[in-house]
Amino acid sequence: xxxxxxxxxxxxxxxxVVRRFVTKYPQYEIYNLDLLTYAGNLENIADIEQxxxxxxxxxxxxxxxxxxxxxxxxxxxxxIHLAAESHxxxxxENPLAFVKTNVTGTINLLNAFRHLWQDNWQNxxxxxxxxxxxxxxxxxxxxxxxxxxxxPNSPYSASKAASDHFVRAYGETYKLPYVxxxxxxxxGPNHFPEKxxxxxxxxxxxxxxxxxxGDGKYTRxxxxxxxxxxxxxxxxxxxxxxETYNIGGFNEWQNxxxxxxxxxxxxxxxxxxxxxxRGLITYVKDRPGHDLRYAIDASKINKELGxxxxxxxxxxxxxxxxxxxxxxxxxxxxxxxEYLGYYEKQYMHK
Length: 350
Ligand code: NAD
Hints:
Layout: E1 3-7, H1 12-24, E2 29-34, E3 54-58, H2 64-74, E4 78-81, H3 88-93, H4 95-117, E5 125-131, H5 155-174, E6 178-183, E7 185-187, H6 196-205, E8 210-213, E9 219-224, H7 225-238, E10 243-247, E11 252-254, H8 255-270, E12 281-284, H9 299-305, H10 313-326, H11 328-334, H12 338-347
Parallel strand pairs: 1-2, 1-4, 2-3, 4-5, 5-6, 6-10, 7-9, 8-12
Antiparallel strand pairs: 9-11
Helix pairs in contact: 1-7, 2-4, 4-5, 6-8, 8-10
C-alpha cells in the first residue's frame, strides 16, 4: 500500500504517468495535484477519473501553506514530481513564472516532505523528473551522460537545473531519499500544440505555415511519452536512493528532417499528394540562446535497470498522428482561447 502524490498529472507526460500508476497498481492511492494552467487539462485523464484509487486535487505547488496542509492531511509516502512550467519560448517571455513554479514549487514539496518524514526516511521516496536541457548544448559529436556538468542556456533549463540542485542538496543535507531522471524531448498523444510535433500536426491539418527556427539544423533526441512513463515506473520501483539516470530514445533527428517525415506521414494519412505539406515549411527567426544539439547517453538505465524504448520513432510518430486525427475535438478545445493569443504573438510577428 502506497500513498503517492503525483504533481502535474493533468499535463502531457504527467497524464500518462498517472494513468499507468492508477491502472497498473490498484493497491496504490494516487493523488494528482495540478494547478490546471493552460497546459493542464483534465480531459487528458478523463478515462481514469472514476477509478477508486484516483484522487484529483487542484492547487499550486508554489503556495507554501497549501502544500504543508496537504502533506499534513494526506501523509504521502512518495512524491513523483512533474509539475512545471515547461515551454522554453514562454520562459524567454516570463522567466519569473518559471522560478516560481519550477524552483519555489519544488522547494515547497521538498520542505513539506522533509517536515513529515525526517525522523524516519524508511520506504519514502521523492522522485524528481527533469530534462536533458540542464546540460546545455552539444557540438556535432558527444552525448550527455549523468556526469556531464550542468550548463543551462534558457530560463526554462536554468530553472530546472536549479530545482535539480535543490533536490540533490536535500539528499546531501537532510538525507531526503530522492531519485532524479533527466529525459530528452517527449512526443505522443495529449502533447500540447505549442511544442514542435503537435504544433505541426495541427498546422498541417489546417494548412497553416510550419514555422521552423533558423536553418532547421537543430538536433534533438525524441522519446515516445509512453516509453518515458514506463521508465519512470521502473526507476520509481527499482532505482536505489540518491541515483540519477538519463532517459533517451537513442533517436536523434535534425528538426528539418523530422518535419519532412511528419509532413509525409500526414500527407499519406490525409490522402494528400506526397510533398504537399512540405510546401508549408517556413523558416522563421531563430529563438535566442537556441541550443544546437541535445543527445542522451541512456546506457546507465539500460544496463542497471534493463530499460529501453519499446517503439521505433516511426511507430511512435504514426501512433501520435493517429491519436491527433482521432481526437480533433481535444485539439480544437486546447487551441481556442488563450492559445490563439499566444500563437499570434509567438509566430505571426516573425
Ligand atoms: P506540461 O507543461 O504538459 O504539464 C505541466 C503540468 O504542470 C500541467 O498540467 C500544469 O497545469 C501543471 N502545473 C504547472 N504549474 C503548476 C503549479 N504551480 N502547481 C501545480 N501544477 C502546475 O509539461 P510536460 O511536458 O508534461 O512535462 C512534465 C515534466 O517533465 C516537467 O517537469 C518537465 O520539465 C519534464 N520534462 C519534459 C520533457 C518534454 O519533452 N515534454 C522532457 C523532459 C522532462
